[in-house]
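Show me any protein, keeping tokens residue-aligned.
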Amino acid sequence: MILAAGRGERMRPATDRVPKPLLPVAGKPLIVWLIERLTQSGIAEIVVNVSHLGVLIEDALGDGAAFGAHIAYSREAHALETAGGIAGALPLLGDTPFLAVNGDIYTDFDFGRLEAPARALAGGGPLAHLVLVDNPPHHPQGDFALEDGRVAHHGQRFLTFSGIGVYHPALFAPVVRGSKHQLAALLREPIAARRVRGERYGGTWVDVGTPGRLADLERLLSPR
């Protein structure tokens, strides 16, 4: 699943007319970079949730055939935050563990490496597997610690959640369909119960949350 329903407030005024996942970088919309990365990793069945200017995303991506994928859409009358959006898409995602990724990041992460964590979630026990990255300058405090492969609220070194994770559908049982709910809040108890695993990724990862970071990514990806 690609999370693409957000308003993109920090990117205004550009996002007043273009949803953030469609903002171009190096000649390609952000979300297309992600879709291509997913299909290169062997993932072709994709769900995209949409809300703000969602029709533009659907028009741009269609059914996904142009990218070697099959795309289904979970439409939200108003953005439901991360966990709310995922919970609303569960009928499209099925009853086995699935990958979800924020639609406003760029990364060279190989999503195929999450197949093993997904199998582990299917076996019971853990409810989620998060990909963490080194703290970027705009988020120096980080989000979670990583201790012996488990995500923790306390630890010697904190890392930043990348917006990439694998989740068991049971994680979203407490979320009322159609309601707003943040993923961080939903993960609080499972993390305390040691039911969230994780890994650190040291490759390229950019949270494209501001015009400045979008410009930096443009310079990174443009031919020299």
Remarks:
- The CA atoms of residues 128 and 167 lie 4 Å apart.
- The chain is about 25% helix and 25% strand.
- The radius of gyration is 17 Å.
- The chain has one domain: 2-221.
